[in-house]
Design goal:
The chain is about 40% helix and about 20% strand. With about 500 residues, it is α+β, with helices and mostly antiparallel strands.
């Protein structure tokens, strides 16, 4: 039997998905297992790291029911970034893992979020990187830090379970905020500041390289062959970019998921408040990412709050979301002067203001739910334009088109609004599971099925509908954007005072 199938694992915040790909990028089988998320206090986000492993085993075993283990040649991991666990010498968790969405370390950001940290790591000061949470632990849970033998990202944790080695990829460790993007190695000053030593951190391996082989114990747990090659993976954003063939200048991926994430390729490194810089999966390259903390989250919030339970609509249009989209299509561009600034979860790129809150501006008696729904879609598009214009200023080759993926990419109306507002084509990825596909591409290149990562990306990716800017609509959005970009600067001080009142 030919061994040419690839197992990918995507350990996200709420579930683990395992997908099996052939060498052409076709999905052969899949499995899924849920993860529990704990929020014991406001701003906290934690998980039992052991669940990362047990859910991975369940998901992979489920996917493997459809195929023979003899047909698998390699596996690779994609994962939620910035999340990390503190383990003892035996590899057991000392405390719950702290997730990327945990925002308790705001005071540490204020005190330690220096220009040097930004320049070295590429991450503007914000509570997401593990660096600030480690400072929080050092202050508030010194006993946990004293017991810690290993600090691991999700990838490093799973690699240890699979291979019995303390290794991770550079691209997986980078989001923790302890890696110097210029050297591609840990930064000794940041390690010391966090109260750690190199011995407590995983050995770094380039993404796409062999990182180990499955032990007998792991092989049984996963339902895979003993000694199967494990290829170094990366964070979900980086593998999503690879799955959309963002392996050259001029294009960006756009994940229209719960949050809105976009990332582009850069051959050179530059730190800027407009984005967070990350290690690219092709050696010597970088990924510049923007993150809007509200995407389909905003749509679900609107439906649940003002319309009713999602999926309960039984008329001939189908789901309530489709009915709302049909209604919003009849509303003229600009929603008759109604603006939505989508800071329901604070402002990330380019302002990094955790005090910022959402705004609906311009209401009058003519507005109904269709206007609000369309204004939400337009507001997310305006915010993306605001971010992209600042990213373009740091690129040698400005972004000329975007590849859309995720649940929101299924909305023809939203994709067209995005194209009209941005003035750039929106290409829909044929494979909505681009994150898992990107991990499959790394596995394919890592075992020599393709000569390099870029070749695997080109060969295994596919694209569907392209939306082009409407020449009659884009000028309308250009004028509206001049108003939109003034709303946050005009309300920033109000948000700060509001935060004091809330406290």
């Amino acid at each position: 039997m030919t061994r040419n199938l690839l197992v990918s694992v995507d350990c996200s915040t709420t579930s683990v998905k395992s997908m099996i790909w052939d060498v052409n990028g076709n999905l052969i089988a899949s499995g899924r297992a849920p993860l529990d998320l704990s929020t014991p206090a406001t701003g906290y986000g934690e998980q039992d790291p052991l669940q990362w492993w047990t859910a991975t085993c369940a998901a992979v075993r489920s996917a493997m029911k459809a195929i023979s283990g003899d047909s698998v040649v390699a596996m690779c991991i994609a994962h939620q970034r910035e999340s990390f666990a503190c383990l003892d010498a035996a590899g057991d968790a000392i405390r719950p893992a702290m997730l990327w969405l945990d925002s308790r370390a705001t005071a540490e950001v204020e005190s330690a979020g220096t220009l040097r940290v930004h320049q070295v790591t590429g991450k503007p000061p914000n509570p997401t990187p593990a660096f600030y949470k480690l400072l929080w632990l050092r202050k508030h849970e010194p006993e946990s830090m004293q017991k810690t033998a290993h600090v691991v990202d999700v990838h490093g944790y799973l690699v240890n379970k699979m291979t019995d080695r303390w290794r991770t990829s550079i691209a997986s460790a980078d989001p923790l905020g302890l890696v110097n993007l210029v050297t591609g190695d840990y930064d000794d000053e940041l390690i010391s500041q966090a109260g750690l030593t190199r011995d407590q951190l995983s050995e770094l391996v380039p993404a796409g390289d062999v990182i180990g082989e499955l032990t007998a114990v792991a092989a049984v747990a996963l339902g895979l062959p003993v000694g199967l090659t494990v290829i170094a993976g990366a964070g979900d954003g980086q593998t999503a970019a690879l799955g959309a063939d963002i392996s050259q200048p001029g294009r960006a991926y756009l994940n229209l998921g719960t949050g809105l994430v976009a990332g582009c390729f850069s051959a050179t490194y530059k730190a800027d408040q407009a984005y967070r810089a990350l290690t690219g999966l092709i050696r010597g390259t970088f990924s510049f990412e923007i993150f809007i903390g509200a995407g389909t989250y905003m749509i679900n919030w609107f439906v649940d709050t003002f319309v009713g339970q999602r999926g309960s609509d039984t008329n001939d249009v189908g789901t309530i979301e489709l009915r709302l989209e049909r209604e919003a299509e009849s509303v003229s561009p600009g929603s008759q002067g109604l603006f939505v600034v989508p800071y329901w979860n604070g402002a990330l790129t380019p302002y990094w203001d955790h005090n910022a809150r959402g705004v609906m501006l311009g209401f009058s008696g003519v507005h109904d739910r269709a206007h609000i729904y369309r204004a939400i879609l337009e507001g997310l598009a305006f915010e993306l334009r605001l971010c992209l214009e600042r990213v373009d200023a740091s690129l040698a080759d400005p972004i000329s088109s975007l590849v859309a993926m995720g649940g929101g990419a299924q909305s023809a109306l939203w994709c067209q609004i995005l194209s009209d507002v941005l003035g750039r084509p929106i290409v829909v990825s044929e494979q909505q599971e681009s994150t898992s596909l990107g991990a499959g591409m790394l596995a394919a290149a890592g075992v020599g099925l393709y000569p390099d990562i870029g070749a695997a990306s080109k060969a295994m990716s596919a694209f569907g509908t392209t939306y082009f800017p409407d020449a009659t609509v884009s000028p309308i959005y250009d004028r509206l954007f001049t108003v939109y970009r003034e709303i946050y600067p005009s309300t920033r001080d109000v948000f700060a005072r509001l935060a004091q009142v809330r406290e």
